[in-house]
Design goal:
Elements (H helix, E strand, L loop, with lengths): L20 E7 L3 E8 L2 E9 L3 H19 L3 E6 L30 H6 L4 E5 H12 L8 E6 L3 E7 L2 E2 L32 H5 L1 H8 L13 H19 L3 E5 H6 L3 H13 L8 H7 E3 L6 H14 L1
Bound molecules: adenosine-5'-diphosphate and zinc ion.
Zinc ion binds next to helix 4.
Length: about 300
């Protein structure tokens, strides 16, 4: 059988060199998306329900096998829900760690995929993949040090430092930062581990627990947004002080669905810094704390960017 030419061999970079083809897999809690793409364009995608690991990974591997035969992509990027062992020195590298998601604890994620697509592979969290997509094509273009924060069912953060995603021992879990409570706030928080960590105070379910109303039904004028914004501002101050990041990109159902929230967050940061980092005035904060731009394709596109990192 003759090998069909890749659909978009004509995608060229600024130097008129064809862009390499990359493959990616975003393993999500409910669905898994496999893509093949070139130059930031998704050429083909399949969506597979995330059920049991054997079933989901076999269906994903089947697609990768076929793409490998047809297109010989240069590298593979894999982004996954967590917690997952990312550090290559970790004995469990490429495996899911302990998770309440039934059947997934200890599951080998990378092995079954590279077996059928033997190319350089990079693995990271789903939120880090979204961060990389924002860094390449979205709200963090041109910035080498930034954090992508998703505020949804939980709070997840993907950290990019010096243009590289931060992995560390496992991966950053800054959604569980222990923030200082706003004076007078009596809500106990709902993180099963910490109660009033950032996620326990400001993720969608925390807002629902605090108000008795789903976060998407809460009016922007509701005073319950104030302690939520305050906790987020605390978290961001920690990011600025720890990482000296140049930008914070906010995504997720709550982050994107409540456009008024970022202004409330920015308003609280100056007071919390209390004159420290004086260049971070109102206009600077408006440019530094921004909404995500990539929408639903951030994850899949981020897997292609992970693949580019794997290729080096
Ligand atoms: P997930 O975090 O599960 O990937 P989302 O980012 O969509 O998914 O987050 C879901 C959470 O975001 C839910 O708690 C939901 O109530 C909340 N949410 C979704 N849309 C909005 C909205 N427009 N305004 C406020 N909260 C929202
Ligand atoms: Zn927590």
């Amino acid at each position: 059988m003759t090998m069909p030419a890749p659909a978009a061999a004509s995608v060229r970079n600024g130097n008129d060199v064809p862009e390499p083809l990359f493959a990616g897999v975003e393993l999500g809690g409910t669905k898994t998306i496999a893509v093949i793409g070139q130059g930031g364009k998704i050429l083909d995608r399949v969506t597979i329900p995330t059920t049991r690991p054997a079933e989901t990974l076999a269906a994903t591997a089947e697609q990768l096998r076929s793409w490998y035969r047809e297109h010989r992509p240069a590298a593979l990027g894999v982004a996954s829900f967590g917690p997952i062992a990312l550090n290559a020195r970790h004995g469990e590298y490429g495996h899911m760690l302990s998770t309440p998601k039934e059947g997934w604890s200890g599951a080998a994620i990378v092995g079954p995929l590279v077996e059928v697509m033997p190319v350089p592979v990079a693995l990271h969290t789903d939120v880090t993949a979204a961060a990389l997509a924002e860094g390449r094509w979205g709200a963090a273009r041109g910035v080498s040090d930034f954090v992508y924060v998703t505020i949804g069912t939980g709070i997840g953060m993907g950290v990019v430092a010096g243009g590289r995603p931060v992995t560390g021992r496992m991966h950053p879990e800054a959604g569980h930062l222990r923030v200082r409570r706003m004076a007078g706030d009596g809500f106990a928080g709902n993180c099963p581990f910490h109660g009033d960590c950032l996620e326990g105070l400001a993720a969608g379910p925390a807002i629902a627990a605090r108000t008795g109303t789903s976060a998407n039904k809460l009016s922007p004028e509701d005073p319950a947004w104030i302690p939520v914004a305050d906790a987020l501002a605390e978290g961001m101050v920690s990011l600025f002080l720890t990482l000296s990041c140049e930008r914070v990109i906010v995504g997720g159902g709550v982050g994107v669905g409540q456009p008024h929230l970022l202004a409330l967050v920015r308003d609280r940061i100056g007071e919390k810094l209390a004159g420290y980092l004086p260049d971070m005035d109102e206009a600077t904060l408006r440019a530094m704390i921004v909404h995500a731009e990539m929408g639903a394709d951030a994850g899949p596109l981020g897997t292609l960017e992970l693949a580019a990192l794997a290729r080096g």
